[in-house]
Amino acid sequence: MRQSLFKCLMSYEYYLHNFVYCAPTDVRLLWDTYFDAMSEDFKRETTISVELRVSKTLQSLNLFLESMGKSISLYDLTTRPTNMDNVDYEFPREIQDEMSIQIPPEDYEAELKLNLEQHKAFSMIIDVIQKGKSGIFFIDGPGGTGKTFFYRALLAHLRSKKLMAIATATSGVAAAIMPGGRTAHSHFKIPIDANESSECTMSKQSGAAELLRRSKLFIWDGTPMAKRWAIENDKLLKDVMGNDQDFGGKVVVFGGDFRQVSPVVPKATIHQTISASLVRSYLWTRMKKFRLTINMRAKNDTEFSKFLLRVGNGEEPTDTEGNIRIPEEMIVKYDNEEDSIKRLIRAIFPSLNTRAHSADYMTDLRKIISVEKLWRRSEDV
């Protein structure tokens, strides 16, 4: 068993599977034998006492046991030098915050609702995590193809097993729609105006660094908007993990849509802007890429979905000035303001007279957006 443990990088999961499912006769002996291996993460805290190391290790074991439907109280490990009831408060604030993230009820079912494209990526990423391997992935998809839904499925899967996963995005808006999401610049201490010489600053003994060490997955949405130097600045994870592999050997999932906003480089030429993009990074060729093409927002309107994809890919014909002609069937004819508004409402809400009181109908991807906020005729709806 000693050899197997070290081959499996001394993981809690392997240890627990052995004494949960193999029913060893002396759990206490296993604890005494492998305590140093299991508490390796905590030994990095140079000022930590042995008693506190024991408590933190027991707490971590208990979290894994709970994910298996068990409890540490079922085993001969309950005599401990520090009160387990108070051990939560001994964890760094960053880890406590991560552990307190609530999984939305709908996210528990997200994994079951993934389409074939999403499920293929999901299965490979989870498999890499379960095997303790490293990996860099990129989820490429136009708006509406379910990238955020996919991220939330990954987060729910891991967090439901008491494993830590960090959700970040380039913009605060994108980060806010993922449970526990924060900007990548905040999480990884990346300078806002990153360049070739930028470096992240974080103490290896800090709670933030401990959170990075414990996390099984990092998600970074909206990466096409970020300058490649911000993404390449993975020296922080290499230092924290003591591992010279890309991103310290962690599993990282990037994602976004190159058809949308590119990196903002003040007064730059097109060539300079492209040079600042992720596709010009040495990391780009090392990423396993998954492409999402099914528009989940317009899945019942395949022609519209195909039109949007052609526009995004630069494949839709244009006139001499570069303008795209919108198909007639997508245009609501304008005669005068009053008639045109009513015609628009009927086009978007065709069953409004009979289903106006149905919340599902009114919120089922049906929206009328006024760009200039000049439309105040809400009484027409």
UniProtKB/TrEMBL annotation:
<dbReference type="GO" id="GO:0006310">
    <property type="term" value="P:DNA recombination"/>
</dbReference>
<keyword id="KW-0067">ATP-binding</keyword>
<keyword id="KW-0347">Helicase</keyword>
<dbReference type="InterPro" id="IPR010285">
    <property type="entry name" value="DNA_helicase_pif1-like_DEAD"/>
</dbReference>
<keyword id="KW-0227">DNA damage</keyword>
<comment type="similarity">
    <text>Belongs to the helicase family.</text>
</comment>
<feature type="domain" description="DNA helicase Pif1-like DEAD-box helicase">
    <location>
        <begin position="113"/>
        <end position="320"/>
    </location>
</feature>
<dbReference type="GO" id="GO:0016787">
    <property type="term" value="F:hydrolase activity"/>
</dbReference>
<dbReference type="Pfam" id="PF05970">
    <property type="entry name" value="PIF1"/>
</dbReference>
<dbReference type="InterPro" id="IPR027417">
    <property type="entry name" value="P-loop_NTPase"/>
</dbReference>
<keyword id="KW-0233">DNA recombination</keyword>
<dbReference type="GO" id="GO:0043139">
    <property type="term" value="F:5'-3' DNA helicase activity"/>
</dbReference>
<keyword id="KW-0547">Nucleotide-binding</keyword>
<dbReference type="GO" id="GO:0000723">
    <property type="term" value="P:telomere maintenance"/>
</dbReference>
<dbReference type="GO" id="GO:0006281">
    <property type="term" value="P:DNA repair"/>
</dbReference>
<dbReference type="GO" id="GO:0005524">
    <property type="term" value="F:ATP binding"/>
</dbReference>
<keyword id="KW-0234">DNA repair</keyword>
<protein>
    <recommendedName>
        <fullName>ATP-dependent DNA helicase</fullName>
        <ecNumber>5.6.2.3</ecNumber>
    </recommendedName>
</protein>
<keyword id="KW-0378">Hydrolase</keyword>
